[in-house]
Specification:
The complex is a heterodimer. By secondary structure, chain A is an all-alpha fold. Chain A has helices at about 5-20, 25-40, 45-50, 70-90, 95-115, 120-140, 145-175, 180-190, 195-210, 220-225, 230-255, 260-285, 290-310, 310-345, 355, 360-375, 380-395, 395-420, 440-455, 460-470. By secondary structure, chain B is mainly α. Chain B has 23 helices and 2 strands. The longest helix of chain B has about 45 residues, at about 540-585. Chain B starts with a helix and ends with a helix. Classes of the chains: A mainly alpha, B mainly alpha. At the A-B interface, helix 7, helix 9 and helix 12 of A face helix 22 and helix 23 of B.
Chain lengths: ~475, ~625
């Protein structure tokens, strides 16, 4: 029944495309329904059951599978699509654009779902490209100079990544003669020291790192995040880069390459560089969304640090941090959207004391910032703690200590953000500002509740959702 | 059952003190009645228990800290004396502190102090002793602080000085406990040498500082001006001397065995002699009744320390006899100063004069006490001093000379005091003075009578009070009816006469009793030293303050430095790094692609070099 997760979005896409003009109004509702369905499906055993629809096998020949890791990603995708859609209200106003926007969202959803579930390397590439293509267009939804430039940058870099990944896949195909994960794994084990294979692995990883936007492969990412329309930023930061880059890397390493010392050191090294320099770069930003973009880079670094341990605890910590990052970074982008909507700018130099003008936005952003900085008992604290514990357990004491110190930098730039934007007394130019509309405060509140809830009910969450990841 | 009286001595005054605090300020006589009743009961109980020997033991904490009390001849003697002074001074205070704003607090703290003194004297465990000992520090602080405007500063000074000394004692106690393996005082028997000597010195510092010896004395003259007067008569003059000398004797005789040949005995004698001389030199030039007395309170401690420090039986007996004598005449003297202050409104000697006719009973008490402190026969001070002289001479001529010179100066300064306050022409302040109220006179008369009695019947205090307390250390000698050494008495008499002649000549030359000894004040080298001493240049507390100021400035700089690192240094580094990173992110495709390809290259080379993935 897993194929439903791809087929239903596909059907919906066709449906709204062929409906007459008035269908444009329902397009939004259809996407919303899809998002709800996705969240429901993650918790429904019958849909998650690894069973083919009768009669489909001949036409729809993908190897699909889910494990706890994929389910958490599916959940993240559902949540973020829902949030982005809610937040789109004030930013995508024209009927036409709404229609395109909805269609692209469905395409994105389908592509991401596919990447998460497929278990053969070529189909993975196909869905990867579907999601990437949907993203370019979404960034460029507003035909202005900045979004176009951001989209173009994203396009260029995506193509380079595609070239990397595709050549790697070609080499692997040459050697193994098959595209399914299990076959490749077996084939690679036979000749582990072949230079060609090693080259393929390096190139493959480089392509995934580019998608994930870790340093030094990150150049395009701040521009893309910052120039995209608010809902698209939420989508990109929340799930697109995480799925296409981080999750895929995890999947490939776990299922195909396996953890070797060299791979672990690469992952840890990349993670450490991204975590530190991402945070440092975030401190110097003047634009709210760019700051959040660099913070994303830094947090992805943390995810790689956890993952790079290669231990069950490390992997669990990494996936937990992906989930938490999705929640708090989406929330911060929603807050940024609210500020942008009311002020018409993202320049932090022109903001002051907004918390008194926009209490809900202010409060929820404080919660998100604290979670991001790893302040107990919020959700972000636990995942960061797990990452650091995993590093310590693996005997990487220096890295663990550096990770702790880097979270001070995180706290520093988040406090800088809060102080410039929300704290203090508002200046005169803030006089007319009022709280953002319902469709920006509702997602903020939902996400804030998630942050606090996951943090407070952490023992329950960790035992039912996170630890099962480890027992794959 | 009778040994339950021991905790009663501690908790009775404590509870009564709490009750006194509860009495509303408006209700008169009740708190006074309560204080009198409690102190009287305390005195009666102490006298009733005097011949008994009893112990009380409750296991308390771990590590050998047990609540154990022990009453024997020595502690019973101190307890009875403390009870007596407490009762008499309470009686005096009822008038002196009557309707004063802080009266309630004074009486409460007074009772707390009595409770703590009783506890400290009774305790047979060093930790318990320390508890009561340090508690006394707080009541002293409180009693000084309820005085005048500048009292708080003085209270802090007292707290710091005595606190430092108590800290030494605390370390000393820890050392003693470590060396002997027990905190039970009656079981400890340590030898001097090495750590033992260190422990002895540390505990000795605690003891002599409580007694008010140099160099831990500087708060006493200040307190004499600031604190309520009965406090001076009660604690620094009487109870703290009793307590400090009691502990010193216990340390020297029981905990350690101080022998005459040891360097520590020499050290004690030097401290004693120096204290005698320096303090009396300061007393000589004072122009305030109370301040002058307070310096004598320090100087006389020197005699006791000298006596005990000689480590010969005669000296020890003399020291302890001097302790009780001093407590008597010094509290009597303070009480007379209180009476003068109350009746004439001042204790400034320049504004006093001719009070002998106005306040004859006070003058008589003053005369007896002053004669006693100067060592005039047949008052009690004479006999205790003679014993100490004997002991000092046995150990070295120089100590004897210091002691006898101290006596000369003491006599001179009391001649000056008596002359300036009670004789001579009447001043504006003393013109309308009347005799003090009877209730204030009673304590003075009783104590003055005690001075006479202890002098005439010295076999009673020496034989019944002092000698039984230290009977193990007497080596079978009995000093109760020993006649003083005739040669020494002759020297003393000559000294006293010289002091009288000196005073008469000086007074004639300068024209007033107050200025009779000014020639010492104005002597070439001394005048400079005196001036510096008056400016507190020799006050260790002031040195400490200067040092602490410098030290705290240093710390402040250090703190600023660390602060700078966190507030400016590290953020500066972060900002610089951050700006550099921003500069690198120029938005150029080529740069970004270059980074990516560079990353790819490094990745592949690394993987190829490790020959595995």
């Amino acid at each position: 029944m897993l194929s439903l997760m791809i087929l239903i979005p596909l059907a919906c896409l066709l449906l709204i495309s062929f409906l007459p003009l008035k269908g444009k109004r329902v397009a939004f509702a259809v996407v919303m329904a899809l998002a709800f369905f996705q969240i429901y499906a993650v918790f429904s055993p019958s849909i998650m059951a690894n069973r083919h629809l009768p009669g489909l096998a001949s036409v729809f020949n993908f190897t699909l599978a889910v494990d706890s890791l994929s389910r958490i990603m599916l959940l993240c995708i559902g949540i973020v699509i829902f949030i982005a859609l809610l937040a789109a209200g004030p930013f995508v106003k024209e009927e036409d654009k709404r229609f395109y926007f909805s269609g692209l969202m469905i395409l994105e959803l389908m592509g991401l779902n596919g990447v998460v579930m497929v278990r053969d390397i070529f189909s993975m590439y196909v869905f990867w490209e579907v999601a990437a293509a949907a993203s370019f267009v979404l960034i460029a939804l507003e035909k202005k100079r900045d979004p176009l430039e951001g989209a173009f940058k994203y396009l260029i870099f995506s193509s380079v990544a595609t070239v990397f990944v595709l050549s790697a896949i070609a080499i692997i195909l040459l050697i193994s003669g098959s595209t399914s994960f299990t076959d490749i794994r077996v084939a690679l084990l036979v000749t582990p020291h072949s230079n060609l294979i090693i080259l393929a692995v390096g190139v493959f990883l480089a392509g995934l790192f580019m998608k994930a936007g870790v340093m030094p492969f990150h150049g395009y990412l701040p521009d893309a995040y910052a120039s995209a329309p608010a809902p698209v930023s939420i989508l990109l930061a929340g799930v697109v880069t995480k799925t296409l880059g981080v999750y895929t890397a995890m999947r490939i390493v776990i299922d195909i390459f396996g953890f070797s010392t060299a791979l672990k050191s690469i992952l840890l090294c990349i993670g450490l560089i991204s975590a530190i320099f991402g945070a440092l770069a975030a401190m110097g930003q003047k634009d709210l969304k760019r700051l959040l973009a660099y913070s994303s880079i830094s947090q992805v670094g943390y995810i790689f640090l956890g993952f790079g341990c290669g231990t069950p605890l490390g992997i669990a910590a990494a996936i937990f941090h992906i989930f938490n990052h999705t929640v708090f970074k989406s929330l911060l982008f929603v807050n940024a959207a609210a500020v942008e909507d009311r002020l018409g700018t993202l320049d932090m130099g022109r903001m002051s004391g907004l918390a008194s003008r926009m209490p809900i936005t202010g409060t929820t952003s404080v919660l998100a910032s604290l979670s991001l900085s790893g302040v107990p008992p919020l959700a972000g604290f636990w995942s960061k703690l797990f990452i650091i514990l995993a590093l310590w357990q693996s005997g990487l004491y220096g890295v663990a200590v550096t990770a702790v110190l880097t979270s001070l930098l995180t706290l520093a730039y988040m406090l800088l953000l809060q102080r410039r934007v929300f704290f203090g007394t508002p200046e005169k130019n803030m006089a007319g500002v009022v709280e953002a509309g319902f469709n920006l405060t509702l997602p903020a509140v939902i996400l804030a509740i998630l942050i606090a809830g996951v943090g407070l009910f952490f023992p329950y969450v960790v035992h039912t959702v996170i630890f099962p990841v480890v027992s794959f | 059952m009778t040994n339950l009286f021991l905790p009663l001595l501690i908790f009775g005054p404590l509870l009564a003190g709490c009750l006194v605090v509860l009495v509303p300020q408006r209700v008169r006589f009740l708190k006074e009645a309560l204080v009198l009743a409690v102190t009287a009961a305390d005195l009666v109980l102490c006298l009733r228990l005097f011949p008994e020997e009893m112990t009380l033991f409750y296991p308390w904490g771990a590590y050998g800290i047990d609540f154990s009390l022990r009453l024997y001849r020595f502690s019973a003697f101190i307890l009875a004396a403390a009870g007596g002074f407490a009762f008499l001074i309470a009686l005096y205070s009822c008038v002196f502190m009557f309707a004063k704003e802080k009266g309630r607090l004074f009486f409460a703290l007074f009772l707390f102090s009595l409770s703590l003194v009783n506890g400290a004297v009774l305790s047979d465990n060093l930790i318990v002793l320390l508890f009561f000992w340090e508690g006394l520090l707080l009541t002293v602080f409180g009693l000084i602080a309820i005085g005048g405007k500048t009292a708080f500063k003085t209270a802090v000074k007292a707290l710091v000085i005595v606190g430092v000394a108590d800290l030494c004692m605390m370390i000393g106690i820890a050392l003693v406990g470590h060396l002997s393996g027990t905190f039970a005082i009656s079981k400890i028997q340590l030898s001097l040498g090495g750590l033992g000597s260190l422990a002895f010195v540390l505990m000795m510092i605690g003891a002599i500082s409580k007694a008010g010896s140099m160099p831990f004395h500087t708060w006493i003259p200040d307190a004499s001006i600031d604190a309520p007067l009965p406090f001076m008569a009660f604690l620094p003059a009487a109870l703290e001397k009793l307590l400090g000398i009691y502990l010193l004797a216990r340390i020297c005789l029981d905990l350690f065995k101080l022998v005459p040949e040891s360097g520590l005995s020499m050290a004690l004698m030097i401290i004693g002699s120096v204290t005698i001389l320096l303090a009396v030199m300061m007393a000589l030039i004072q122009k305030n009744y109370k301040r002058l007395l307070s310096y004598h309170a320090i100087s006389q401690v020197g005699y006791m320390i000298l006596g005990i420090g000689t480590a010969v039986p005669i000296g020890i007996v003399g020291g302890l006899f001097h302790m009780i004598n001093h407590a008597m005449y010094k509290s009597c003297l303070f009480l007379t100063s209180g009476a003068v202050e109350r009746q004439s409104g001042t204790t400034d000697l320049e504004r006093l004069g001719g009070l002998a006719g106005k306040m004859p009973v006070t003058f008589l008490c003053f005369f007896i006490a002053a004669a006693a402190i100067s060592g005039v026969p047949p008052f009690n001070g004479f006999f205790s001093k003679e014993l100490i002289y004997d002991g000092a001479l046995e150990r070295g001529l120089v100590f004897y000379l210091a002691a006898i010179l101290g006596s000369f100066l003491t006599a001179a300064s009391f001649l000056k005091l008596g002359h300036a306050a009670y004789l001579g022409p009447k001043s504006e302040a003393t013109q309308k003075a009347k005799e003090a109220p009877v209730i204030m006179l009673i304590p003075m008369i009783v104590i003055a009578a005690g001075c006479v009695y202890f002098g005439l019947q010295r076999s009673f205090p020496i034989g019944q009070l002092v000698q039984p307390a230290i009977e193990n250390h007497l080596e079978g000698q009995d000093f109760s009816s020993l006649l003083p050494n005739k040669k020494l008495v002759a020297v003393t008499a000559i000294m006293l006469l010289m002091a009288l002649v000196n005073h008469i000549l000086g007074a004639k030359m300068k024209g007033s009793g107050l200025k009779a000894v000014d020639y010492i004040h104005d002597a070439p080298v001394l005048s400079g030293l005196y001036e510096k001493a008056e400016r507190r240049c020799f006050d260790p507390y002031e040195w400490g303050r200067v040092f602490m100021k410098g030290f705290s400035y240093l710390l402040w700089r250090l703190d600023r430095g660390i602060d700078w690192v966190y507030n400016a240094g590290l953020p500066g580094c972060a900002r610089a790094l951050s700006n550099t990173l921003s500069r690198w992110h120029s938005g150029s495709y080529v740069t970004y692609l270059g980074w990516s390809l560079g990353g790819l290259l490094v990745l592949v080379i690394f993987l190829l070099s490790t020959r595995s993935f």
